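for the writeup, i need someone to sanity check this before i put it in the appendix. the sequnce is what the collaborator sent (i think, or maybe the updated version? ugh). structure was predicted straight from it, no edits. if anything looks off just tell me and ill rerun, i have time this weekend
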Amino acid sequence: MDNVTSSPTSQSPDHVPGYGLTGIRERLALVAGTLTTERARGGARWVLAAEVPE
């Protein structure tokens, strides 16, 4: 299971840029985009939404 935080600046000490959800969030931030994550109903799955401005 991925541990996801709501803040793109919070990183673990062993953070390696470019991998997983953190990498997706970092790449989206480069183009002023966002990545949001939340638990789906029942809590067994995650919902990810990436938004990229035109």
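The chain has one domain: 1-54. The first strand starts at residue 34 and ends at 39.
thx in advance!!
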